[in-house]
Amino acid sequence: MIVRISGEDQYRLPDSDSQHLNELERAVIAAVESGDDGSFAASFAALLDYVRGHGAPVPDDELDTSDVILPPADLTLEEAGREFTGDGLIPD
């Protein structure tokens, strides 16, 4: 699976990571729904850190379509309310 972090890079992660990514995203969604800015910041950072830490950067000369596009790291709680809704961004 290829995950893009907007404004950054694309990262290749094994498909087996999708379950863990979904768990991390559910924490982001819960924080957004509760309106808890501190929890949102921590859970969103954890999601991005996981992608950066476990994904292999896709070389710039490779043209691959992203399976998931995550918002940029400077996303606010208000903006997240428009992004992380329903089933979220990461497919099950």
Q: How many beta-strand segments?
A: 4
Number of continuous helical runs: 3
Low-confidence stretches: none
| Terminal Cα span | 12 Å
* Order of secondary-structure elements: EEHHEEH
Helix percent band: 40-55%
Beta-strand content bin: 5-15%
Q: Averaged pLDDT, please? A: 92
The structural class is alpha+beta
Coarse morphology: globular
Rg, alpha carbons: 13 Å
The largest sheet has its strands arranged as 3-2-1-4
Main sheet makeup: 4 strands, mixed
Our count of domains comes out at 1
Write a concise synopsis of the structure shown:
It is built from three helices and four strands; from the N terminus they run ββααββα. By secondary structure, the chain is α+β, with helices and mostly antiparallel strands. The chain starts with a strand and ends in a 9-residue tail after the last helix.
SSE arrangement:
Layout: E1 2-5, E2 10-12, H1 18-34, H2 37-54, E3 56-57, E4 68-70, H3 77-83
Parallel strand pairs: 1-4
Antiparallel strand pairs: 1-2, 2-3
